[in-house]
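Protein record
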Amino acid sequence: MAAIYSGIYLKLKSAKTSWEDKLKLARFAWISHQCVLPNKEQVLLDWVTQALVSNYNKKHELEDEVVEKLWAYLDNVIHSKRLQDLLKSGKTVGLSFSVAEIINKRLSEAYSEKTQQNIGTVLSCSSGILSTSSLSIIYTAKCELLVDLLSKLSKLACQQLASDDAVGSQLFNVLHLTFAQYLLIQRQQANPNRVFGRVTSHLLQPCLLLRHLLTVRSWTQADDNHVCQHLSREIRSQIETLLQAGLFQPELFSSYKEELLSEQKSQEKKKGAWKTLLLPVNTVQTKLGSDLCEPALHGAVVAGSVSLLYKLFLDSYCKAENYLVCFHMLSRLFGCLRLSDLQEEGKSDLLFPVDWSVELFALEQLLSLVLSNDIYNVASDRIRHKEVQFGFYRKLAQLLLTHSQASIPAWFRCLKLLMSLNHLIVEPDLDDLVSSAWIDAEASEPHTKKPQEVLISTIFQTYSKLRQFPRLFEEVLTVICRPAVDELRPPIFSAGLTPKLRECLLELPPNQILDILCLFVEKCQALIIPAVEGSVDMALKLMSVCSVLHAFLFNMRSLDDVTPSPVVLRTQRLMANIQKGIILPLMELLQAPRREGEKSELWLRKASDAALLLVYTWVEVDALFGVSCSKYVSPAAETAVTEPAARHWGVSAFLPGVKDQSWRRVMELASSFASTSKYCLELLTLQKMKMMLMQTEADLQALQHAAAFILESGRSTMSRGESELWDGDISAITELSYPTAHWHLIMSNLTILLPYISLKDVEYIAKVLLETLMLAEDQEAATDQEPSISIAKISLGFIHSSLLPEMRVLHCAFLTHLIYQFAVVLPTAPRDSVDLPLQQLSVTSIPWHEEIMASCKTVDPLEVPSENKVQKDELSLSWKTLEKVAQCIVLLAKNGCPVMLKEPQLQRCLDLLEIVSLQKLDSFLPSDCTRCFLVLLSLLVNARASVSCSKLLLLKVLSTCLHLLRCLQAGRNSNSVLKVLHASDVLEAVMTSQLTACKFFTDVLTGPDWAQYVQEVQEFLENFLQMIIERRQSVKLNLEKFMSFLVSCRPDTGAAKSTDWKNWNPAAEQLLLTAFTTLCHVVTLHLQQLPEKKLHSVDVFCALLEPVVLQMVRTVEHGLQSSTPNQPLPVAFIPSVTTLLKADLSHPVKKDWQKEPSGFLKRPRVKLYQEFYSQILKELPCAGSNLQFLQLALQFLTVFCSVPELCPEKETALMVVFAIKKLLSGPAITTQVIRSMEMELTEVLVQVLGNCSDEEFYAIMRLVLQGLEVRNIWQQKAKEVLSAVTLTKLLLSCPLSGDKGKAFWFASPQIITALALQTKEACQDQALISIIAIPILETVATLLRQGEGILVNPHHVSLAFSILLTVPLDHLKTEDYHGVFLGVHEVLFSIVQCHPKVLLKAAPSFLSSFHRLVVSVMHEGRQKGDRGNMDEFEMILKCAHLVERMYTYIAAEMEDFTVFSAFIVAHYVTELQKVTLHPAVKTHLTEGIYHILDLCIERDIKFLNASLPAGVRQVFKDLYNDYNHYHKAKKQGEEKYTA
């Protein structure tokens, strides 16, 4: 045979053999052992590479199909197991450099042809070559080939990202691998100039373009998930590492310095200097030129690259002595931006808005780097460098202010950064800054408004600290008094700016604030007031000035008794000046008679707004000063005594100089505008009420008129139903935001208004509150991201607060309107509407809470006695109505005449029920609690869905009603319901109606909504029955009536005695079983809690319970017989049988009860339990992930297995464990499902193992060990392994004593060994990490903790380290990473805590395992360009906290481990030097390593300083200095005061 095949090589070389035959022969030769060729593998590799090289060198022109097959053959050979085995055995097999050349050439062709369809095989070849060390030498030995490959791959990746096609993973995986190989080679290069040249010539441009495209790409679902989430970030990180190491090596700094500083030295050139030095900055600038990429992308790529390059430059060279060099690098890189062109004279603004956004963002990042690295030192720049930096930033500021871009957030942020660098940079253009960035800026969008407020806040803080606030507001006033850029200027102080202004005003000297106020008042008197009439521009200026005065007066520090007298006197003069110089002239202007057409003019509206705002501000501040400062004399004090109107609280009582008649005209004018002026009138009226209430005798009539005026003022606008958001700024109220402001005022001051408004007004407020709540859900969805106020938010805030329950009149009225809305939803019944329960409960003529409402009525004191006489009769009327309604509901339930609702009506009911749930139901008064209970009961009993309606919607309505009924009966006034209803009637009405309603739900019994509904029924019945028992009133009677009702519902006859059910159905059966179960459970629990003195009651309750139990048995048997064969048991059956069994077992019994036929647990029932047990064991493995079924089934097994006598004769404990094992190995079972039912599984096994024999336990152990055999994972039976691992963990949770415990621990070494082998195999497949590796880690941790003092052989414990060193910690999904990390940590912690002696002998293994955790958390917790989602970051923080915990425990508890402390620190600083940690992660790790440093003695510190490499040594010194400064000093301070 050998002779036959030995001629293959000749045939391969022969020109006569067709290429098809050659390829077949080559494939056969590679796989066949019968083909004998000297050095066969190398020969075949040489043949295929030579064929490909000849084709690409044009020596032999081959067809495209043949070429593709040759590439495929080469790919198969490279990835074959045969080649890998040969290389592992040490045999030398290599490729020629020409292979790398043709791969690069093929990729280049693909890029130029703009098609990537046929390069998959080539990419696979290059991947195989690079990942095999003996083959990758063709690239690593010739670095230029690797650079060329990286350049080609980067360009191909850019091409793919720029297209509309879906992004695949193959190209990016190869690219990631190539970057990793190149970075290894780059670190080994000794010549930094050569590396710089190589990077700038071949890699800089494609890398920058690739990084940009990866950053800006909008990933879609079609794109590969691994590329989106992982590879894109990793490749960007690799690009940054490549550029950092290639362009900014320490050895290149002299070249940068020489080039950058030469600009300053007036062209001084050293002899021969430029011959040896590079021009690195010029080279980089050239590469950022027009040939970087296509013109459409060029600006954006350069903008993104400039900030990256500057960051990398600063990371490498930023030290105090290099700050000037760093600045010049900034100026050169800024020159690459298109913004720099605008500084040149004659250049026009050619940038589009999108370009402006990109350029300004880049500038923002550059300035942010300057600020964070402290490059600009004002004094040093002025003294040493002739303000070269200041001049640069000054030009930048002029550029920004000349080309205002108020619609772009980055523009504001750039100005803010310049302000932070030095306020003098923008000081010369302060007026332009105030105008373009504040007063005249159109920044209405939220994303723009926020940075604008931050900039203005910075300006405030800067000028406040400099005590130059008057200088700033001089400019503000100047800008205000200029002609407006737009007809309507935005408000000066937004809601976000006002708190910042307040902070500054509280720090300023009062005289400076008064200077500003006087300046505004004087300018207003001199310039604006004389010219305001008829001028829109002047009216707008007046509004701006008044809003500034309002903001200052409301936010400055108030006068008090410690305020210096000169300040008080000056404030008095200011207030008098405002009153006489501004307010009175404006009042004269507004009260002048005008024609109807003139009243709607804009100037008049604005003048009215400004005047009323200033009047309100003046009155409020004047009253405050008068109260808080005894030295303050109000200008109103001189005239208040002499004016007779003061006694009647006219306008002159608080605003001297204004007559009542004039004020009425002003009020009439202001009320015609739904804007600031109307709102200020309401505020003034409210202020008047407050002033009246401060008097010893309040004028009740005046208070009532004032409260009525406030409510009436906005009633018409509220009724329109049109409103928009309001930001809280009084000066910015518009016609659409006025309703919001008005409602906010009412709800905020309801405690003042409510005692003085009529019952009709109370009902009006309740009605509006309900209407706005009904619209709240839609409005909230639209305004969730807005910080502004909406009517819906106000109402929701009020309903959530504790105010409504305290306002009982309003609470009662609100409930009445709510019930009326329910009545409106229901269609008209065929009988008289008065009989309908909901309409009777919402009748306003019935005095529901007359004793509370009486305080709201205007009552003559002489009429009080007669009112009291009839009060009892009126109260009894409301309770009589409630009793009548209750009887009506019970009658409706018995007669079965439900109201049919359509889907919109049902949805409306559900919305109203949501509003009921928003209220604090426990705060209802007895009658309101009863009303609400009856409403919900009426809906439950009387409402049904039409045929076309959604059944799930009806289920949700019924579930919500039951839930709310349960909440009501859990409240403090739950007993009030039983004044009008018998408890048994409630239970019977609910069950009757629900059993009738069940006929609609026969086809939704498997859904979660039905399960939720049944759960609500069960909880309602349980709570209500519990309440009956706890009340101890007619307990026996109520229970007997309800039990007899349930017993009357007989499924075998097809109908109940008291109802007219024609067809029995499974839904009703489940509901009935739920009622039986709940009743038995509650009564059984009550019997168990009875004291010994009342044991006679047991027989009474047992006698009552027996017919229920018998009926329950019949229902279960009927249900089991009528159920469909091979269908799973209905979930409702399981708790019923469990409760039945518990009830039987709780009965007081004698010894050997099971042998007595007369015992309570009779033979037929034993048979039922046994059949049910067999059915459960049969269905358990098939349940999948149906968690509800699994939990209930396991609970039944727990009770059943607790009585071993119940088990059938042939059934053994092994069968239960086998069923559980089969369940755990099912395809639908996941680790999350196992965790959810772990408690129930443990309880079952506790009972099974506690009652089984030793032989059965040995069989169980054999079953577990069979599952742990490694052949299971070889046969791809991962779930078998998972079930065995889970069973092992569950066995550890069970109390094992005697021979069982000995048997388990005897097998424990075998278990640990098996787990180690399983881990090794599982970790080769990433998909098995979460399925097998994580549960194994959890089991090993538990095994080691439980085995403390039992596992005495150190070798067995040491096996755990092999598991820890096998489990991977990189390239994992987020959830898998946290699971693995936590598992490894818990195993280590178990060894540290429970096996310290083993730890000392295996210290190297422990340190290796722990060091892996440290390295991993440092890698994951490093600073990244994009932080990722917050959940992922929180997970990394938890992992860092675990590492800190381990460090702390080692330091505190393990004295013998001190000898290793220096090595632990060395490991830590070595890794720390490689990464830049996120501050939050670093905090945890640093706190931990400080505790290890506590263990280090002086000799260890010297050893570390001497042995660590230079870079690492510097990191250690910084760490040790921080340790001494922060941690050690704090520790010594604590020890000093410790006893």
